[in-house]
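User: Sequence for Alpha/beta hydrolase-3 below. Tokens please.
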Amino acid sequence: MDSTKIENEISHDFPPFFKVHKDGRVERYPFLESLSKCTPPGLDPKTAVQSKDVVISPKTGVKARIFVPKVLDGQGQKLPLLVHYHGGGFCLGSPLDTITRDFLTYFVTQANIIAISIDYRLAPEHPLPIAYDDSWAGLQWVASHSNGTGPEPWLNEHADFGRVFLAGESAGANIAHYVAVQAGASRLAGLKIIGVLIVHPYFGCEKPDELYKYMCPTSSGCDDDPKLNPGVDPNLKSMGCSRVLVCVAEKDWLKNRGIGYYETLAKSEWKGKVEFYESLGEDHCFHLIDSNGEKAAPLMKRMVDFIKQE
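Assistant: Structure tokens for Alpha/beta hydrolase-3:
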């Protein structure tokens, strides 16, 4: 058979994310991939937020980007730390992309915090649960700075490890939840996680999810996999934070799963407080299109208030 024909034949197709050729080559759809273009770190001229990239694991190549507000210039001030995990269906996105940069730059200025967005290797080239493992390793790396002797000076000098928040949108919200549970179950030392922002979360679908099944061949499905159904996770009661804010959007196809997550957490044995916020008339992750825009303003304010509340 013609080798060119084999290369062009598709074995799996998951629009709008990616398709897999029979020769194993993964081809991502151009529109969503264009939203994941990486940008260099540095000084943001509009907000004076400074960013830099760090390598978390030389072995895996996993990186992170740190965002520090102007208010810290030369003051040695300690600010709350937000640990962020990006969305993108576990197969797209980066802490170095324009969407994450614009969102966190604005959020850092509004909440007066430091933020670090943790990278993870993407499926399907790196099948799940690799993304979860990388994300958990990233939080452990952050915790290694709690005694002031970690490898990254910005965290040593400016992060208040007694006021840590986790956050994520879509697949990143799923990861943020997973990491919070791991932190509690393992009694991760060095960090006090105050709250977790779960924004437009992905916790599977109401029908069989062939995309997730392909990316995570070991998953038992939406009903039995604790990563997709936290209600079956025996460690849920150990979730390592005192507050959770669950945000959904009215027109989001994942809305019902987000509501289900909120209800599961509210009736669980976890001792914290769970809050709920719905953006009416909006769709999935609409706030990332223009974080500083009029449409995003109510949601952004609700998230900022969650960080600032005592």
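The mean pLDDT is 93.
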